[in-house]
Design a protein that fits this description.
Layout: E1 3-5, H1 9-14, H2 16-23, E2 26-30, E3 33-37, H3 40-55, H4 59-62, E4 70-76, H5 77-80, H6 86-94, H7 99-108, E5 111-115, E6 118-124, H8 125-140, H9 144-154
Helix pairs in contact: 6-8, 7-9, 8-9
Length: about 170
């Protein structure tokens, strides 16, 4: 039975019944520690969802992790920037009135949350890899237009026809 230490415990406790129903698990807590019971697959997904909720994502976004093709990743700003400009890097990621985050959301179809010196991402596993690179580019000082262009190039195109059907 895994144990998670949670900072935003009231948020998890309020969502306990919905989490138990959606994920097929049982949640117990003792202080800030949360214990999860259930099948190993459900427990693994529940850990990810609870960590996303604790990070600050809304319930609707956190439950997207339950889908097989969605994932959750955290990027630490301090790991990729100088110790002097972490605040500047965070400001570059958020943008004025959150415009950069909104643009990143619309281009990449991922959800973002900034918490302290960390950036959380929820989205398709393919997109997370590209978005991770884009965020690191922003932290290191790349122009916003170049980052948007990078994401648009890497955006996966839906495959409509593989040429296997005979044309009528």
């Amino acid at each position: 039975m895994p144990k998670l230490i949670i900072d935003k415990l009231p948020r998890i406790i309020k969502a306990r019944k919905e989490l138990e129903k959606e994920l097929g698990i049982k949640i117990a807590n003792r202080g800030r520690e949360i214990y999860i019971k259930g099948s190993p697959e459900n427990v693994y997904l529940a850990e990810k969802v609870i960590l996303a909720l604790d990070f600050g994502f809304p319930m609707s976004c956190a439950l997207l992790i339950k889908k097989q093709e969605c994932g959750f990743a955290i990027i630490n700003i301090n790991e990729h920037s100088n110790s002097k400009n972490t605040g500047r890097a965070k400001a570059r990621i958020i943008g004025r009135n959150g415009k950069v985050l909104q643009t990143l959301c619309s281009i990449s179809e991922c959800f973002f949350e900034v918490n302290g010196h960390d950036v959380g991402i929820i989205g398709d596993l393919e997109n997370i890899k590209c978005v991770r690179e884009a965020i690191i580019m922003l932290i290191k000082g790349a122009k916003h237009g170049n980052v948007y262009g990078f994401l648009e190039k890497k955006k996966s195109q839906p495959i409509t026809d593989l040429g296997l059907k005979k044309k009528e």
